[in-house]
Amino acid sequence: MRAVGVTEFGGPEALRIVELPGPVAGPGQVRIRVHAAAVNPTDTGVRSGARPDLYKDVPPPYVPGMDAAGVLEQIGEGTSTDLRIGDHVMAIVVPAGSHGAYSERIAVPAESVARVPAGASDVAAATLPMNGLTVRLALDVLGLRPGQTLAVTGAAGAVGGYAVQLAKAEGLFVIADASPADEQLVTDLGADVVVRRGEDFSEQVREASPDGADGVIDAALLNDAVVAAVRDRGRIATLHGFRGEEERGIAFYPVLVRSYAHEQSKLDRLRQQAEDGILTLRVARTFPAEQAAEAHRILEAGGTRGRLVLEF
Fold this sequence. Notes:
Strand content: 25-35%
Number of strands: 15
Structural class: alpha/beta
Shape: globular
CATH superfamily of the largest domain: Medium-chain alcohol dehydrogenases, catalytic domain
Largest sheet: 7 strands, mixed
Distance between the termini: 11 Å
Radius of gyration: 19 Å
Number of helices: 8
CATH topology of the largest domain: Quinone Oxidoreductase, Chain A, domain 1
CATH architecture of the largest domain: Alpha-Beta Complex
Helix content: 10-25%
Number of domains: 2
Order of helices and strands: EEEHEEEEHHEHEHEHEEEHEHE
């Protein structure tokens, strides 16, 4: 089968079509004929070898991709699932060696799979699993109550946009950042207050909420620059493992979405929320698999709103 991967780590040009044996669904697994795989920032780390220790004993090729959608075509022996062959499904994928979502076929745990939202294409559905579960985990660890204040950085992006929408669905007051060009987008996503994107995020949050936000989801990776936005004993959900200095009783929660890779009920809830219009599935652009390198170039150039998606 065809997949997109690297045999040597490098820039976008390192990505190429590779041929791999087709997977077979084992016990507890299902196999998906992938039609769409979202391109996420974490994929660029697989391509560039940002964590070489993860691959030192694993031969190439290395296939990126954590989001896939397509048609379920095999159910492994003894697998307990209400999914049926022929269903359009979406999955969160934990890449390992040549196992990644940038493939024509993948075998994944049934707990990592849910049906595609009714009325959504496979391309649109591929933008939801990893990004949606990242936000679900962030909100779960923050544990805010209805009426409390959440500040969101990177609100115009895929993770930040889902953070705004899911937070509003849970009754939170949301302060979110945006560039002037994205202010209307972030307002339409549901933010109660929109502040200018930039390093002065904390000062602007304090203007809107003088006591400070109860929690922050830092999708823009501002790291230390968001700490002053939070009240004493507030909480910050960070991406990429960032944990700041302890001060004012503030708690940091590095969010690692792999811990939710088997949370099928949470993924299915995201499906339902997309069907109910709570979540907006945003596709920036699609590419044939052969143009994965171009998709990575565009992603790394910045400014993408929604997700780029590869089609197989």
